[in-house]
Amino acid sequence: MTAVLFDVPGPRARRRNRILAAGGGALVVAFVGYVLYRLAATGQFESQKWSFILYENIQLLLLGALLATLKAFALAAVLSLLLGALLAAARLSDHAWLRAPATIVVEFFRAIPVLVMIFTIYFGLPSVGITISTLWAVVVGLTLYNGSVLAEVFRAGVVALPRGQSEAAYALGMRKTQVMTNVLLPQALTAMLPTIVSQLVVVLKDSALGFLIGYPELLFTTRTLGSQGQFDFPIIPVAIVVAAIYISMCLMLSWLANYLERRSRTRRRGTPPPTAPERVEPELVGA
Amino acid sequence: MSVLLDNLDLFIRGFLGTIQLFVIAAIGSLVVGGVLAAMRVSPVPFLRGAGMTYVNIVRNTPLTLVLFFFAFAWNRLDIVTLPFFALAASGLIVYTAAFVCEVLRSGVNTVPVGQAEASRALGLNFGLTLSQVVMPQALRAVVPPLVSVEIALLKNTTIAAGFSVVEAGSIIPSLSERGYNVLVGGLWVALGFVILVVPLTLLQRYLERRWRVAR
After folding, report:
1. Does A280 or A260 have the greater pLDDT score?
2. Which of these, A142, A278, B43, B47, could form a disulfide with B39 (CB 3.0-4.6 Å)?
3. Cα B17 to Cα A265: distance, rounded to the nearest angstrom
4. How large is the average pLDDT for residues B187-206?
5. How far apart are CA A286 and CA A115, in angstroms?
């Protein structure tokens, strides 16, 4: 319950809340029930539609698709962390000739949709004589976008540190690079770790875009299996299985982000008073 | 330049489709997200739980999978047969609403409890507390991130291109079919998005700067 909106309920409020609970609850249950009823009525729970799960070939096919998804995710995650670090370093540089192009690159790639990038790379590079596999089209597209987003995350982390940190380091006689690598970056990375992991959830979700250019990942395999007449076109059952895989993988990463967030909050000295306003974090929407 | 001028019809139809899809999905996501946020801050535990479950499931599902479901599975459920455009809009609404809900909910939580307690102590009822004290403050915290979410929605409309909806994303495969230089065409599409997104980004940064000092 949000303490801002509601006081501790008295007898009348409790009665009203019970009515609300019954009415709202009935609506929610009716909605979920209707969806389940439609699924059952169109035969989505019949055993033939789920029999695909019993075949070893299909289990291996799904496993292979999962590995393809994870491969695109892992490559894109590592490369975008590297690109993000490079772009962040350029944006924090003292030289305008490095800072300006990096700023333009970051703003440009953050403004255009990932899919437009993937399509342009996949359909466009062959017209200048470079053929690119579907895997690398996805990886490069995801890297350009998420690298730019991560660059902003890294930069924000460094900028948010108290000035005294770099001033003290300079006073000790450290050079620019030493200040960055030995003093600022370790602190900024720790502070930004939860955000970085949340961005990795976006990378994992965006890897599903590979489906649209025919990279044989989970969704692509769902489409293939869903058109198999011998299992009575089980596209909804397969989609349910694949959705469960995606959701559990992303939930695990989200939990890791939350855990890191909680840990860093308890570690920080002087926890803020309970009435201090919480900030609305910019949401990492992704696709 | 010739890639753009020769295919002007394609570009115009594509970006009009994108804007249509964006406007419909933006309004829809605000409405559905508002209902979800009301559920998540309600005094009824069951509704709070239902809202939270929705948000956690949808936020961790790829949008491509949501649209995949609407494009390939919805019409098999025999509820109402919808055209691809309506299906794509529904998918975008279902997905974006979860993020809108989170922004609204955390916006309400930015208001210090003392504000509401003081207004209740002054004798304001629930409606007055909400409209005169809590909402004006929450709105300042909510609008900038809400604009970010809608920018993301604008970019995400391109994914509908993969599911037979004519919009900006589908320009690139069409150019490829017509045999034009897609690298150049892709850059024109990207430029179109820069033109659409940058004003929204500037608005968001302006609002953020203007309202940050408010408290």
Report:
1. A260
2. B47
3. 45
4. 89
5. 11
- Find all residues with CB under 8 Å of A173, minimum gap 6, and list them: none
Its domain, for residue A159, covers: 45-265
Q: Work out the burial of residue B73: count CB atoms within 10 Å of its CB; fewer than 13 is exposed, 13-18 middle, 19 or more buried.
A: buried
pLDDT in tens, A85-102: 999 999 998 899 999 999
* Contact B189/A at CB under 8 A: yes
Any idea what the Cα angle at residue B148 is, between residues A90 and A256, rounded to 5°?
75
- Say how far apart CA B196 and CA B200 lie, in whole Å: 7
List the CATH number of the domain containing A248.
1.10.3720.10
Report CA torsion sign: A141, A147, A152, A157.
positive
**CA-CA distance, A249 to B65, in Å (whole number)?**
14
Please tell me which of the candidates B43, B181, B194 has its beta carbon nearest to residue A112: B194
Q: Which residue of chain A comes nearest to B154, CA vs CA?
A: A113
Give the pLDDT confidence of A209-222 residue by residue, as tens digits: 999 998 998 999 99
Q: How many C-beta neighbours within 10 Å does residue B56 have?
A: 15
Is A80 a member of any domain?
Answer: yes
DSSP output for A72-90: HHHHHHHHHHHHHHHHHHH
* Chosen from A66, A104, A105, A112 to mutate, greatest number of chain B CBs within 10 A: A112
Which residue in chain B is spatially nearest to A250 when comparing CA positions? Answer: B60
Task: Respond yes or no on whether ipTM tops 0.90.
Answer: no
Q: Residues of chain A with pLDDT > 70: what percent? A: 92
CB B38 within 8 A of CB A2: no
pLDDT reported for residue B182: 84
For residue B69, the 8-state DSSP code is: I
Query: Quick check: A154 and A188 in contact, CB under 8 A?
Result: yes
Disruptive mutation site among A115, A197, A254 for chain B (greatest number of B CBs within 10 Å): A115
- Which element (helix H / strand E) includes A165? helix A163-171
Distance between CA atoms of A179 and A114, rounded to whole angstroms?
Answer: 35
pLDDT tier at A34, thresholds 50, 70, 90: very high
- No. of helices (H) and no. of strands (E), chain B: 10, 0
Is residue A273 scored above 50 in pLDDT?
A: no
- Average pLDDT over chain A reads 87
Structure confidence at residue A287 (pLDDT): 63
Cα A25 to Cα A3: distance, rounded to the nearest angstrom: 22
Please give the radius of gyration of chain B, using alpha carbons only, rounded to the nearest integer: 21
| pLDDT, position A218 | 92
* pLDDT at position A226 over 60: yes
Residue A236's nearest CA partner among B86, B69, B87, B94 is B69
